[in-house]
Amino acid sequence: MARNVSKSICLAGLLLAGCSSTITDYQHETPELHLDKFFNGHLVAYGMVQDYRGKVIRRFRAEINASWQDGEGVLDEQFFFNDGEQQTRCWRLTKTGNQYTGTAGDVVGQASGTTEGNALNWQYVLEIPVNGKVRHIKLNDWLYLVDENNLINRATMSKFGIPVGEITLYIRRESDQPADDVWPACQA
């Protein structure tokens, strides 16, 4: 009996995964998300990382300076984790219609995503240090514009198709102008 219940739960999970939302589900949602408008200036973010069981294992704050010119964008991010660790990431983005591609130092290959309505679905592989080794973790990143100054970001992390964690992030636009200082990751 327990074996049948376990099999039923696994089957239900697989069926639900096959029914997940797609970017076109958001095509009529407003306000419309344009990365080159939202990610332009100084932004502040707060987030958490959860393991595969849902336990919060890290919390962080991020300062983001972003700018765009002629369809090319730079997101200059500095992360401050609750355990004292600091990280930087410099995204270099390209916009073509509602399609975006991007690279960063800890991204394997190229990230790609599409916007529809108020949402962006963004996918990439991130190099994450775990217990002294670098792991390649796939991120399926969803960004949802709440209003012109607020955005919610949820990302699922997986390895070999198996869920290993989630990231939830709240991002607020503070100013239309980037802060004065630029982190070393984005200089040059």
Describe this structure in words.
With 188 residues, the chain is mainly beta. 11% of the residues lie in helices and 60% in strands. The protein has helices at residues 2-18, 35-38; strands at 41-51, 56-69, 72-81, 86-96, 99-103, 107-116, 119-130, 133-147, 150-159, 162-175. Strands 1-2-3-4-5-6-7-8-9-10 form a 10-stranded antiparallel beta barrel. Strand 9 and strand 10 (162-175) form a beta hairpin. It is globular, with a radius of gyration of 18 Å. Residues 8-18 have low confidence and may be disordered.
Which SSEs are present, and which pair or pack?
Elements: H1 2-18, H2 35-38, E1 41-51, E2 56-69, E3 72-81, E4 86-96, E5 99-103, E6 107-116, E7 119-130, E8 133-147, E9 150-159, E10 162-175
Antiparallel strand pairs: 1-2, 1-10, 2-3, 3-4, 4-5, 5-6, 6-7, 7-8, 8-9, 9-10
Descriptive tags:
single chain, 188 residues, 10-stranded antiparallel beta barrel, 2 helices
Number of helices: 2
Low-confidence stretches: 8-18
Silhouette: globular
Question: What is the number of E strands?
Answer: 10
Q: What would the average pLDDT be, to the nearest integer?
A: 89
Strand order of the largest sheet: 1-2-3-4-5-6-7-8-9-10
Order of helices and strands: HHEEEEEEEEEE
Q: By helix and strand content, what is the structural category?
A: mainly beta
First-to-last CA distance: 63 Å
User: How much helical structure, as a percent, in the residues?
Assistant: 10-25%
Sheet having the most strands: 10 strands, antiparallel, barrel
Rounded to the nearest angstrom, the radius of gyration is 18 Å
Strand content is over 45%
